[in-house]
Amino acid sequence: MPLDTFRTETRAWLEANCPPSMRKPIASEADICWGGKDWTFTSEDQKIWLERMVEKGWTVPAWPKEYGGAGLSKEEAFILKEEMKAINARSPLDSFGIWMLGPALLKYGTHEQKLEHLPPIARGEIRWCQGYSEPGAGSDLASLRSKGVLNGDHYVVNGQKVWTSYADRSDWIFALVRTEADAPKHLGISFLLIDMDQPGVTTKPIKLISGKSPFCETFFDDAKALVANRLGEAGQGWEIAKYLLSHERAGIVSEAAFGGMNPVTAAHQSGEVDETGRLADPILRGDVARLTIDGLAFDATLRRIKEEGDHGEGVGARASMLKYVGTELNKRRHELNMSALGMDGLLWEGDKESDGDPARAWLRSRANSIEGGTSEIQLNIISKRVLNLPGA
Amino acid sequence: MSFVLNEEETMLRDGAQQFLEEQAPVTALRALRDSGDPVGFSRDLWAAMAEMGWCGILVGEDHGGVDMGCAAAGLVLEQIGRNLAASPFLSTAVLGASAFNLAGTDAQKAAWLPKIAAGETVIALALDERARHNPSHITTRAAKDGNGFRLTGAKRYAVNGAGADLLIVAARTEDERINLFLVSPEAAGVTRTSRRTLDSHVPADITFEDVKLDGDALLSGAEDSEAAYRHLLDIGRAAQAAEALGVGQKAFDLTLDYIREREQFGAPIGSFQGMQHRAAHLYGELELARSLVRRALTTLDTQPAQAPLWCAAAKAKATAVSRLAAAEGIQMYGGVGMTDEYDIGLYYKRAQAAGEFLGDDAFNAGEVARMSGY
């Protein structure tokens, strides 16, 4: 189909099928649809919107049709994204299954594994979480010690994961587990898909400075993982993990680029604008202008690197640059939101459900440059793999 | 519109890179500086650039140009920046040609565009009247005088003003609107004073005392002369940003080469994390600037109505980043970075000068805020 025809048809379909309440910017975490066995839709529209998009394969537009996607080309998927953005359409479904596990399954999974796991992700039926970090393995992730011992058709897994996002609400976990005890550090790790609905898996939320608990500790006590649910070969886990991390970085980055409050809307909320709509504080205005410029630059850079990728140059280690720049930018945005809100930004709880959201979002943003590899780790990767500096 | 260079653009960039590295390396700038050259650029180089077809890069084919557009001009300017090549390319081939394209009558275009394309003329835009760029602060007046005008006012730091043989002057007419006038620097009542700036360029302060102009000195081909004037400045901002990007990128490349080689504590200093993180941060900043510059230039070519925001953003970012790249370069070079012998200091100076022209990062950030409605 010619691209302009695709655009016209997509625009018409979205116009006819996206419920009006799904055409408002995501204001808070509560507006995001994560899916999963225990998911409760926050509105009838959220449910309808998901169902209609699932029907089109547009929750994962670029995935092959047999795995729940729509088989769109890169160009078509980009047009869909643009058209959705044009009417402020919310993403019908967000999940680690879509952003992170899906791409890894598509690259490393067997046909059977893809058929088993991808369609439930596309339909929002199974919610996944990521088991990477451990108490003793943060930036030095490859030193992880969770252990998997082969026993017939399954592994017996013991150990502890930390910072597992939404583990308490997830159905399955993809985890890095040391299965080859005698292999070198990076080569002894396998990538296991583990059903969390079993006695050997327990989770415990961690309360954060934002007052919320998006992260958990996850404990494996003689948990079972079928060998059939090992992605790739035994010992190939680190390679898969690195591939997947680049997608996690892309996910964090797209979150940084789009959506949410900005300092101008914040200033309007707090009344810190003059009668012409100009930010009342000239110094703050300058800071916001520089944020706008960097935001435009970041959007343009995402677009450029994507286009260059289409021409065979590949994103590669530049994902680290995008992650670093995007997360630092997002932190700045939240800092300026707080500045524009003034005392209003300090509100922690109140009559409205949204009271306290800006402060919590600001606090949450501090993690952007820690999760998925800290800013310092990204700078190390850029130095080594993009700039080819010595000894890095 | 594309971020990726097409075949023609790739050839242009590669050709410009090779030509300028051979014909206008940094040693050429040093030679101009050390000889106290009165205009700060080489006429021979300008003639050679004309032979390359660059002077007509924004001139239509019917006037002897190649009409490749702003994105193409930006590619040449980035290479000019990398080599610190002193030339009237920006003031003449970009701003001069664009002034005629935007505001010239058919007769004015026919008279001047072929000369621009042939490299036969050097043009300076006489615009600012204050130390800091302010395109609205125009007090130079063109009073009606019979069929012509009488021009009175004073301009400062007109880029390439010392070597120009045609001035394009921004002046207010009696309706208080800003218009552009063609003025010969040799006309009675025009006084030029060369100013030497830190980047070894030679702009000029120019005063106009009751200068008599014919009626056709007014660029009167635009429906809205002030809109044409603003658009001309947008083109200039994106173009100057492209040069600044080249300055910053080359300063960064030089610095990377240096820290890979220079050893202290028995290891290349580029192996130390304290250096690496600064370099990696700078890499990201340069990538951001590069995207904005390309976006601004391609938007000028394809969706000019949307260009002003991108041009201001690109100028702001490229200004800040090129200055940072050269400043970080000096720091990473250490003591030798402070010496005249090493080129990095020349990049710092040019970054500062390119930053001032048509508004620095602070000015253009203000423009972005205004255009964004806050």
From TrEMBL, chain A:
Start and end residues of each Acyl-CoA dehydrogenase/oxidase C-terminal domain: 235-387
Residue ranges occupied by any Acyl-CoA oxidase/dehydrogenase middle domain in the UniProt entry: 129-222
Keywords: FAD, Flavoprotein, Oxidoreductase
Gene Ontology MF terms in the entry: flavin adenine dinucleotide binding; oxidoreductase activity, acting on the CH-CH group of donors
Record-linked InterPro entries: Acyl-CoA_Oxase/DH_mid-dom, Acyl-CoA_Oxase/DH_mid-dom_sf, AcylCo_DH-like_C, AcylCo_DH/oxidase_C, AcylCoA_DH/ox_N, AcylCoA_DH/ox_N_sf, AcylCoA_DH/oxidase_NM_dom_sf, Mycobact_Acyl-CoA_DH
Domain Acyl-CoA dehydrogenase/oxidase N-terminal intervals: 40-125
Family matches, as Gene3D superfamilies: Acyl-CoA dehydrogenase/oxidase, N-terminal domain (1.10.540.10), Butyryl-CoA Dehydrogenase, subunit A, domain 2 (2.40.110.10), Butyryl-CoA Dehydrogenase, subunit A, domain 3 (1.20.140.10)
GO cellular component, one term: plasma membrane
Keyword Protease: no
Needed co-factor(s): FAD
The family this protein is said to belong to: Belongs to the acyl-CoA dehydrogenase family.
Name listed for the protein in its UniProt record: Acyl-CoA dehydrogenase
Organism: Alkalicaulis satelles
UniProtKB/TrEMBL annotation, chain B:
Protein source organism: Alkalicaulis satelles
Co-factor requirement: FAD
Family annotation (Pfam families): Acyl-CoA_dh_1, Acyl-CoA_dh_N
UniProt keyword Flavoprotein present: yes
Domain Acyl-CoA dehydrogenase/oxidase N-terminal: 6-120
Keywords, comma-separated and alphabetical: FAD, Flavoprotein, Oxidoreductase
Any GO MF annotation of the entry: acyl-CoA dehydrogenase activity
Domain of life of the source: Bacteria
CDD domains per the UniProt record, alphabetical: ACAD
Record keyword Nucleotide-binding present: no
Record's protein name: Acyl-CoA dehydrogenase
Domain Acyl-CoA dehydrogenase/oxidase C-terminal: 232-370
Family: Belongs to the acyl-CoA dehydrogenase family.
